[in-house]
Amino acid sequence: MTESPVRPGPVYLTVLVISTCGLVYELVAGALASYLLGDTVTQFSLVIGMYLTAMGAGAWLSKFVEKGLARRFVEVEIAVAFLGGFSAPILSFAFVSPRWFHPVFYGLVFSIGVLVGLEIPLMLRLLRRSVAFKDLVAQVLTFDYLGALAASLLFPLVFVPRLGLFRTSLLFGLLNAAVAFASIRLFRSEIGAPGGLLAKAAAVTVLLLAGFASADRLSELAEEQQYADEVLFARSSAYQRVVLTRNRAGFQLFLNGHLQFSSVDEYRYHEALVHPAFAVAPGARRIAVLGGGDGLAVREILRHPSVASVTLVDLDPMVTRLARENPLFVSLNGGSLRSPKVTVVNDDAMTWLEKGSDRFDLVFVDFPDPNGFAVGKLYTKRFYTLLGRRLSPDGAFAVQSTSPLFARKSFWIIDRTIAAAGFATRPYHAAVPSFGEWGFVLAAPKAFDVPPRLLSGLRYLSDETLPALFSFGPDMARWAEAPVNRLHDQALVRTYESEWRKFE
């Protein structure tokens, strides 16, 4: 079979495409693992380590491909197109069975990594007769790295928010299939009869197109398998997976698979978060809410006639948009985010604290639990120190602090960390059926008591029941050895993971 030189320009474009696709599949796997399993840092670390190891194995295996390089390269592209393109649907459906998820997950990541590792070595060998080795390596690696840059920028900023994970993986599978077709033409002199390869590439392309067209339905089916109730809304933002479900009793919000509230009993949680702080500062006028993009804490805040303004700081505009526009949310939060007293800021809370100077009479901290380092930073001494700079001299703040029953050590780490930042603290807890016994910490710059005088007309709390919230039984007793959670050493995240793992 005659081997003829090929034009390097189209090949370099091919390298750009396949490197972009390869990194996207890695990012898809990491994002799905973090959504489904939590602990973003751990999941991405495992995925990166597994993927790079597999790429190394693929590069090593490439030396055993001695004949039919062009044909083997096209076959690799077809395989990558199929496995990489369908990676998001496969992993989402695999999560239905926790027993099988990890074998499927790591098997798929490793398989894609091996195939991606084969691509560049085979391409280098195909081009060595057409380009001087020095120039060949420099050009191929340059376009390889440019492809990686494109993937890292476009994945979180464009593809996931606009297409979602299913369509993103399927789209890049189609790009790999396009590379297969282009390579058949580019290396036609070496491939010979291309009929079999064209048929395989066409079949995979048809499957990917069908998957892309039905991605919404596939996503719905996967979500329905993961959640016991009807899925009303399921979408990936730039920051997290947002899912809204409904059953006979009410509806629920999940972020990255973790329940944020149930409409049946959320009032217990939000009354406990908000109203004890108002007992300490009854005339509070300027209020800030960090997290709490669902608007439910804001609803409780607006019940107090003294409130003149509320600033809500939540990272994810998808959540605040749902809270402002979705009829179920609006009915539950009373249209709180539509109030002229409320200003919504979509920003990282720590960044917002650092760059601002306005002071507030009360601050409510309503973040998700510290199940990863990205959230864990919002429970550090550094964070509470920054918060203190934005607090009025006679102000106070309340922090949701996970369960003192199921995660006792984690709860007392949060209390200890707030105290280490220079605040007097009053930890307390409330019974929320959807979560169990749940904890909070009330804090102020100087020692204080909680007057047993609450806003009248509450569904859960009353003047009579308030004192009991501040009493802890032996099974929730203070952990005397609780460390301070610091930005550079997040002991809270490690402790939280170990405590909640017992209940998985």
Q: What would you note in describing this structure?
A:
By secondary structure, this protein is α/β, with parallel strands linked by helices. It folds into three domains: 8-224, Growth Hormone, Chain: A (Up-down Bundle), CATH 1.20.1250; 229-258, no CATH class; 261-501, Rossmann fold (3-Layer(aba) Sandwich). The chain contains 18 helices and eleven strands. The protein has helices spanning 8-37, 40-61, 69-85, 87-94, 98-127, 133-186, 188-191, 195-213, 215-226, 266-280, 296-301, 317-325, 327-333, 349-355, 373-376, 381-389, 408-420, 491-501; strands spanning 230-236, 241-246, 251-255, 258-262, 286-291, 309-313, 342-345, 360-366, 391-400, 424-432, 436-444. The strands form two sheets. Strands 7-6-5-8-9-11-10 form a seven-stranded mixed β-sheet, sandwiched between helices. A four-stranded antiparallel β-sheet has the order 1-2-3-4. The longest helix is centred in the N-terminal third of the chain and has 54 residues, at 133-186. The radius of gyration is 27 Å and the shape is elongated. The termini are far apart.
